[in-house]
Records
---
Amino acid sequence: MTALGDPTRQAIFERLVDRPRPVGELAGELPVSRPAVSQHLKVLKDAGLVIDRKVGTRRLYQVDPRAVADLRAYFDAFWDQSLAAFRDAAEHEEKSDG
Amino acid sequence: MVDQQQHSVGAAVRQSVVVDAPPERAFAVFTAGMTSWWPIESHSIGTKPMTAAVMEPRTGGRWFERAADGSECDWGRVLAWEPPHRVVLAWQISSDWQADPDIHTEVEVRFHPEDAERTRVELEHRGLESYGPRAEEMRGIFGSDGGWRGLLGRFAETARA
C-alpha cells in the first residue's frame, strides 16, 4: 500500500506541487470533506511526501522539496547521460558516413 | 559534458546539448536512430532483452521497445511530430519501469540550428508530479547503490570508453 495509491491523495499532492495551500482551500477545490482532506494530508505527511508549517494562524501544507528533488535528480542524471550518448551517436554517424 | 540547465519551477527537468550535425540528422538520430544511443541494457521494461527502441514517425504513433523475438512493450505515444524541428513524446513508464497509463509525463525535444553544421537540442521532461503515487518507491530505488543511479554510472563509463 502506498501513501499516494489513492486518487484523492494524488489530486491533493498535485495541487501542493503547484503551490502551498491550507486544508480549507484543498477541501474547497475537491469533492471531499475537510476532515477527509486532513486525514489524507496526515497520510502524505507520515510518508514524508508533504510537510506543513504555521503561517500566522493558518497551517500551510506543501510538498516536501526533497521528494521532488529526488525526482529531478533522477531524470537529470538519466537525460544527462542519454543526451551525451545521443550527441556521440549523431556525430559518429556523420563522421563515419560513407 | 552536456550543458545542463535546471529550473526550480514545476516538476520538470530541462537540458540541452549542441551536436555537430545539422537539424535533419540530429532529428533522425534522436527518433529513427534512438536504438543507437538509448541505454538499452539498463532502461528496458520488457521481460526479454530489448533490441530496438521504436518511435512511429507520426503524431499519434506508438513509442515502444522491441525484443529479438518481436515482442513489444509500450513506452508511450508521439504527441507531436514536426521534423526536423520538434517532437513531443508521452512517457508513460513507472518508476519501477513498467508501462503505466496512470503516469502522464511529457518529453519535448526541440532542434534549433546554431549554424550550418551544428544543432542545439533542447529537451524538457515535464509533468513529473505524475510520479506522486510512486514517489515512495522511487526513493527506495534511487537510494541504494544497486539502484538506477548505480546503473547510470556504469552506463556513463561505458559510453565514455
Note: The interface with chain B takes residues 2-5, 10, 13-14, 17, 47-49, 67-68, 70-91, 93-94 of chain A (CB under 8 Å).
---
Amino acid sequence: MTQTQLPSVLIVDDNEDNTDIIRHYLESRGYPITVAHNGDEALSQFETVRPSIVLLDVMMPGRDGWEVCRIMKSHAEHGKNVRVIMVTALDEMDDKRTALQTGADDYVAKPFDLARLVQVVERNAALLPTATR
Amino acid sequence: MTQPVLLTDSDDTAVAQAAALLESWRLEVRPGERTLAVAVDEVADVRAVLTTTINPNALRDVVEQARRLGLPVIVGCRDETARRRAVELRVEEWYRIPAEADEIAARVRGAIARRMPTGGEVTDRVARVEYEEMLYDYLTGLPTLPVMVERIRNLFKDRGELIVLYFNFVRYSKIEELYGWEKLDAVLETTAHAVREFLSDSALKTSRVMVSARNDDDFVFFHVPESGVAAASDAEVTELAARLERFVAGRIEATHGEEVAALFDIYVGRSHVYYSPKTRLERLIYRGIREAAAAAKSVEERERARKVADLRATLRDRRVYIDYHPIVVADTRKVFGYEALARGEMRSLRSPEVMFEVAAEADLIWDLSRLCRSKALEGVHTRLQPHEMLFLNVDPQDFADPTFTDQLESEVKDAQRVVIEITERTAIKDYPKFRERLKAFRDRGYRFAVDDAGSGYAGLGSIANLEPDFIKLDISLINCIDTNFIKQSLVETIVRFANDQNAMVIAEGVERAEEFETVKKLGVHLVQGFYLHKPARMDPHATPATVPRYTEAAGTGD
C-alpha cells in the first residue's frame, strides 16, 4: 500500500531563525517545505509551488500577512485549494475578525510550541480538498 | 535625455521629497479628484503615477488610464478600506499615509521594477496588447476595459459605430456584511458565467458582442454591428438587455436562492457611439461608457422612485406578512420560539432588506417598523403555543419613537413571551440612557437578545453592557464553521462569555448538518436556520386549529 503524500507547506516569516526551526521540524515529519521571508517572495512561491498549507506570519515589513492571506485566498485557481494559517498573537477578538475578513482558516498563537503547530497543520491538512493531497 | 516625471494628485511634502530622492526625476502635481486621470494622458514623460484619492471612481479611472499606457501606479492609503481597494485593483505598490519620503521613494522604485516586463520597455502596440491580455479580472475571468478597448478599436473604426451597454449591479444593503465576502464573490462568479453563457447562446453571437468587466460590480458590453448587416435597432438592443437581465437574475436565484437574489438588482444603460476622426478613439469609447453608465444610473433612480411608491401603498393597505422562523433547542430540537420576519406582499419589496432600505431613504422607517411589529404581535396569541417565545426585531432608534411604548403596551398581553432583538450593529450612542430605557421594559417582563454578535461592531464589553438574555451569533460566523477554526474559536469565546452572563447563545443561519453538529459541540444553546426548518408563511386567515405545528425540528431542511 503506497503511503499518502503529506501536503506541501509554505512557511512565511521575516525572521530566518523562525523559518529554520519550523522547517526542520516539519521536514523531519515528512512535509515538503518551501520558505519565504517576505510577502512578495511568499506570493511568488505561491504561484510556482502551489502549496496546500501556508503558515503565515502577520507582522512583516512591506506586505503584511493580512494582505498576503487575502491575495492567496482569493486566487482564481488555487485559492480554494489552500488553507492559510496565521501565525500571530491572536488572542484579541479584533484580530480574529480581521483574520476572517481576509479569509484565514486557522491561527497559531505566538509563541507556540512545535507539537501544537503540527497539530494545527494536521487538522487543516485533513480538511484539504482530496484532489490536491 | 528627458527627465522622468512622477505624476501625482498629492500635495503632501513627503511625496515631493520622495521625488527629490529619485535622482533626476521631476514631480508634476495635479490636485483635484478628476484631473489626475486626464493628466496621465496629457503630461509628457510620465514614468509613474502616485495617487492618494479616497474617491473609488477617481481611483479606478487613474488606474485604467495608467494601465493603458503601461505606467505603474502607487497608492497612498489613509485607511483599511483604501488599502483593500488598492489591492483589489492590483496596483503595483501602496503605502500607508503618513509615510516618510524614503519609504515613498522606495515604493515608487518597487512599482517601476514590477511594472517593467523583462527585456526593456514595450513600445510595440501588438506586444503591449498581448501584455495587457494578462489583465483579466481575477474573479470573472473577463478582460478589463483597457484590453477590450484595444480589441475593438479597429472594428469600431471600420464600422463607424458602437453600442455600449452598461450593466450596473446594485447590491442592496450590505450583502457582504450579511453573508460574507465568499458569498459575494460566488454571486459575482455566477453572474459572469451567466453573462458568458447567454452571449454564446444568443442569436447575437454572430454580430460582434463583447463583454468586459469594469471593477467587480459592473459589466460593459460592446456591440459592433457586422459590416453589411444593419446595426441592431434600439428596440432589438433593448430586448437583448432585458433578456440578459432576466437570464442572469434567474441564474442567481437558482444557484444562490431567493433570499440572496432578492438583494440584487441589475440596471442597464445604453449609449450609441459614432466614430469621428477628429476625436481620439479611446476618448470616444470611454465617453460612451460613461454615458451608458449614467443612463444605467437614471434607470436605477426611476426604479427606486417606483419602490417608494410601492412602499406607500404597502403602508396604506397594510400589505406586509410575517415569516416565522423557528428557533429550536440544540440538544432536543424542540421549538423554543419563533423569530418574526416581515416581508412586503408586493414583489418589489419581498426582501426585508430592500423594504427597510427604501423606507429609510423615504423617511418612512417608523411607519414601516410599526406596521411590521403590529403584524408580528398579532401572531403571538393566535399562532404560537403558550410556551413559545416571539423574537421581535427592534431597531435601537425605535426606542425613540414615542408611539413605540404605547404600541407594545396595547398590543402585547404577555410581555414575558416577547424577546426584543436589537442588532449590535447600530451604534448606540448613549449607553446609560439606553440601558435605562431597556430597564423600563425589563421591569415589565420583556427579555432582550443582541443580534449579529461577533460581527465586529462592538466588543464583548458593549454586549455585556446591554445585559442580554440571548446572544445571537452573526450568520457569517456560522457559514462553514465546520471548516474554519477561527470561527470556532470565536464562537467558543462567546459561548463562555454568555454562560458567565447567564445568557443563551443562538446560532442563526445553520444550513448544513456539519454546521449544526459543530455549533452544538461548541455549546451553543439554540439554533435557527434552513437546516432545521424552512420558514413558513402562516395563512392570515387560518385558525389556530388549522395552522401546522412545529413540535420538533425535522433536520432535513423541509
Note: Chain B has three domains: 5-115, 134-275+282-306, 318-537.
---
Amino acid sequence: MIRLMIKRWPLGLSLMGLLLLSACASEPVPPTKALQAAELAITNAEQARVADYASPELGVARDKMAAANSAVLVQDMVLAERLANQARVEAELALAKAQMAKAKVVNDDMLKSNKSLKQEMQRNPGAQ
Amino acid sequence: MNAQHHVRHLLSAAAFSWLLVGCSAAPKQPEGADTVRNKLTQLQSDPQLATRAPVAIKEAEVAVRAAEQPSQDLALGQHLVLMADRKVETARARAQTRLTEDERKALSEQRETARLDSRTREADRAHRDVSALQREIAELNAKETERGLVVTLGDLLFETGRSELKGNATNNLQTLVAFLNRYPERSVTIEGHTDSVGSREANFDLSQRRADAVRFYLQNQGIASNRLMTAGKGEETPIASNSSASGRQLNRRVEIIIANSPVTVGH
C-alpha cells in the first residue's frame, strides 16, 4: 500500500507541475493578431514608398511597433496590444497621406502642362 | 441586502449633489475626445469630401464613438482618442485623394480643350494663308483653266526683242515664288509667247529664251528644277489680234501654268 502510494505521488506531483506550467504559460498571451496587423500595415506603407511623402508618420509607426515588442518582452500584453494597434493606424495614416501627396503631384504636373500649353498658344496667336 | 441598498441611495444622492455643484469625480470623456469629434464633424460636413471615403469615415465614426465613452481608465481613454484621431486623419486623406483623382478628369478635359483650341487656331491660320494666297494669285490675274491655274505675265517682263528679265519684273515673280514655296507638291510649266513681228523661227527661239529666263530666276529663288518645265511657243498661240499694237502687246507674254493638284486654291 505504502509503496503504491509512494509510487503514485510523483505522478500526481508531476501532473500538478504540468498544470501549473501550462497555467503560467497561458496567462500573458502576446497580442499576435494586433502585432501581425501592425507589421503588415508598416510593410504596406514601406512598399508604397511612403517614406518619400510621409516619413514622419511612418517613423512614428515604426517606433510604436518597437515599443509594442518591448511590452511583449516585459509581458505587459495590454500595453503591447494598444501600441500594436496604434502602430497599425499610424502606418495606415502614413500610407493614406502618401497617396494623397502623390495624387496632388500628378494634378500639379497636369496643371503646369495645361498652363504651358495655353501660354504656347498665346505666344503663337495664329496670324504671322 | 437592505443596508447595501441604503448605501447605494445615499451614494447616488451624493453624486446628484456633486453634479449640481459641478461633477469632477464621475467618469467623464477622455481628454481630447471632443477635439477628435470636431475634426470628424468637419470632415462629414465638407460637401467635397464627405461622400468620397464613406467606409473610412464610418470606421472613424465608430472609433470616435468608442473614444467618447466615459472611462476611469485614463490610459485606455488616451489610447482610444489617439486611435480615433488617426482614423479621422486617414479618412480625410483618403477622401482628399479621391477628390484629387476626380479633379484629374476635369484637368485632362481642360487639356483636350486647349489642344483642340490650338488645332483650331492652326486650321484657321492655314485657312487664312490659303485666302491670302488666293488674293495674291488674283493680283497676278490667274485664271482657272483645264490645264490648271494660268498666270499671265505681260510683256512688262522683257525689253522688246530681249530675253533678260527687267529689274521690276521680279516683284511679279516673287508672288509666284511664295506660292511655289507654300505648295511644294505643285509643278509649273513656263510658256513663252511672242507677237508675229519677225520670223517664226526667231520668235520660237525668243519665246524659249524668255521661258528659260523665268525658269532660271525661279531656280535661283530655290524652286527645284524638276518642278519647272519650259516651252517656247513662238507666235503660234496668240490671245489677241496681231494687227494692232495693243493686240501685239497682249500676245507678247509668258504664261505660268500651275498644274492642278490635290491642294485646291478656290476662286
Note: Chain B has a mean pLDDT of 82.
